[in-house]
Amino acid sequence: MFPGARIYKTIAAVAIALILSKYVLGLSGFYMTVAVVLSMKTDPQKSYEYGKNRVLGTLLGGLLGYLIMMLVKHSPIHEESILMVLINVGCAYLILWFAKLVHMPENGTTMGCVVFFSITLIRFNQPVFDYVSIRVIETLIGVVIATIVNSIDFKKLIK
Question: InterPro entries from the xrefs (predicted)?
Fold first, then answer.
């Protein structure tokens, strides 16, 4: 039993993403390859739709995370305080509510929360703007790569 075209497409897109991120952009490639793998769907249109919602969720979580961390930076709120726990819970509520209001699909909604929490809880002491920018750019590029590679007819190439 041989792998199908989608497996070859995914591996090709991951290779492109890693080469581009590491050797052209000087980035780790983590977010780009995750976006590639998650965006590679059964057809290009599904890849595009999934990817679009993933990027919108990333932007939503990134923007809110950035605003909250700028507030924290310029206030007496400590990142480890109970107030920060309450802020995280309240912002998760806002992301979920806003996503429902604008009828954002589930993958965009969950991505908004994941990106928000990655900014407010772990961002590895990287400056907030840098982290958000890299996260959004790598996600966008990964989605574009997955969508383009998914539009190639690999069945003809692997025969």
Answer: Memb_transporter_dom (IPR049453)
Q: What is the mean pLDDT of residues 112-122?
A: 89
Closest CA to 122 of 135, 109, 110: 135
pLDDT-above-90 percentage for the chain: 57
Q: Tokens 């932007």 correspond to what residue?
A: 59
Is pLDDT above 80 for 121?
yes
Number of domains, the chain = 1
CA 42 to chain centre: 20
Torsion sign over Cα 27, 28, 29, 31: negative
The answer as to whether 48 is a domain residue is yes
What is the Cα–Cα distance from 24 to 12, expressed in whole angstroms?
17
Largest distance between two CA atoms of the chain:
63
The reported pTM is 0.83
18 secondary structure, DSSP code? H
Q: Please report whether residue 65 resides in a domain.
A: yes
For residue 39, give its domain range.
5-153
In a domain, 104, yes or no: yes
Whether residue 24 lies inside any domain: the answer is: yes
Structure tokens of 109?
């909604």
